[in-house]
Design brief:
The chain is an alpha/beta fold. The protein has a domain at 99-164. 37% of the residues lie in helices and 27% in strands. Helix 6 links the parallel strand 8 (167-171) and strand 9. The structure holds adenosine-5'-triphosphate (ATP). Residues 2-246 form the ABC transporter domain. Keywords: ATP-binding, Cell membrane, Membrane, Nucleotide-binding, Transport.
Length: 250
C-alpha cells in the first residue's frame, strides 16, 4: 500500500530525513516512534505530499508519486495524479484541524461535497453512520468549540473516513490530549485496526504501539534505525539507540 525508498529531505541545509525506507502492506498497522525532532512527522507529511522530498521514491498502492533518476533528479507526477494519489490517504493531525465555523456534521460532509462533488443527501447518512461509529452522533449539530479534545479527535477521524481512504495516516493523534482523553481516541483507532484499515501512526503511545501495531519503526535523527514485528521490537530491540530510547520511555 505504501512503498517509500531512500527518502531524503532537508530544511534550509538541515538534513531531516536521511535515506528513510518503509513499506506498508494492506491491512497493516505500523507505528513510528522516536525522539522529538527525529523526522517522524516530516516523513508522514512527505507521504501525503504536504512536504516534497529532495530524493527517493514514493509509490502508493503501486502508483508512483515521486521518483529519482540515476542522476539524482527527483520528479513528481502531474498535479492531477498527485491529487488522485492523495485521495487514497486520509490524515489525522495532532491539533485536529477541524473547521471551527462548521458543525460536527458540516466538518464531515465538507470534503466529500467539495472535493468529490457528492450531494448533501448522499453523504449525510454516511456521515451519521461514521458519527455512530466514533460514538458522537449526539454531537452531530455541535460546533467544535463545544467539544473536548478527545471528541474533536474522534470527529477528525470520522472526517478522514468520510473520504473513504484506503490508508489512514495519524500524526501524533493523542499528543495534544489530556491523559484521561487519550483512551477514547486509541479505542477508536484500535477498532479501525480490527477492521483491517491500513494505518501508519506516528505516536508516543508505547502501549498502542505494543498492543495494536503489527510493526513498529524507530526513527532517530532523521534515520529509520530499525523496524520489526511489535512483540519482537519491544522484547529484543537490535540497536543500542532503540534500547536507549525505550529505556527513556519507561
Ligand atoms: N517546515 C519546516 N521548516 C523547517 N524545519 C522543519 C520544518 N518541519 C520540521 N522541521 C524540522 O525538522 C526536524 C524534524 O521535525 P519533525 O516534526 O519531523 O520531527 P518529529 O520526530 O515528528 O518530532 P515531534 O515528535 O516533536 O513531533 C526538526 O528539527 C524540525 O524543527
Amino acid at each position: 500500500m505504501i512503498e517509500a525508498r531512500g527518502i531524503r529531505k532537508s530544511f534550509g541545509g538541515q538534513s531531516v530525513l536521511r535515506d528513510v525506507s518503509l513499506t506498508l502492506a494492506r491491512g497493516e498497522v505500523v507505528a513510528i516512534i522516536g525522539p522529538s525532532g527525529s523526522g517522524k512527522s516530516t516523513f508522514l507529511r512527505c507521504l501525503n505530499h504536504l512536504e516534497t522530498i529532495d530524493s527517493g521514491h514514493i509509490a502508493i498502492e503501486g502508483e508512483v508519486l515521486a521518483t529519482t533518476d540515476a542522476q539524482g533528479r527527483c520528479s513528481y507526477v502531474s498535479d492531477a495524479q498527485v491529487r488522485h494519489i492523495g485521495r487514497k490517504m486520509g490524515m489525522v493531525f495532532q491539533s485536529f484541524n477541524l473547521f471551527p465555523h462548521l458543525t460536527v456534521l458540516g466538518n464531515i460532509i465538507e470534503a466529500p461535497m467539495v472535493v468529490k462533488g457528492m450531494k448533501r443527501e448522499a453523504i449525510v447518512p454516511r456521515a451519521e453512520e461514521l458519527l455512530r461509529k466514533v460514538g458522537l452522533i449526539d454531537k452531530r449539530d455541535s460546533y467544535p468549540g463545544r467539544l473536548s479534545g478527545g471528541q474533536k479527535q474522534r470527529v477528525a477521524i470520522a472526517r478522514a473516513l468520510a473520504m473513504e481512504p484506503d490508508i489512514l495516516l495519524f500524526d501524533e493523534p493523542t499528543s495534544a490530549l489530556d491523559p484521561e482523553l487519550t483512551g477514547e481516541v486509541l479505542r477508536t483507532m484500535r477498532q479501525l485496526a480490527q477492521e483491517h484499515m491500513t494505518m501508519l501512526v506516528v505516536t508516543h503511545e508505547m502501549g498502542f504501539a505494543r498492543e495494536v501495531a503489527h510493526r513498529v519503526a524507530f526513527m532517530d535523527q532523521g534515520e529509520l534505525i530499525e523496524s520489526g514485528p511489535a512483540a519482537e521490537f519491544f522484547a529484543q530491540p537490535r540497536h543500542a539507540r532503540t534500547r536507549a530510547f525505550l529505556q527513556s520511555m519507561l
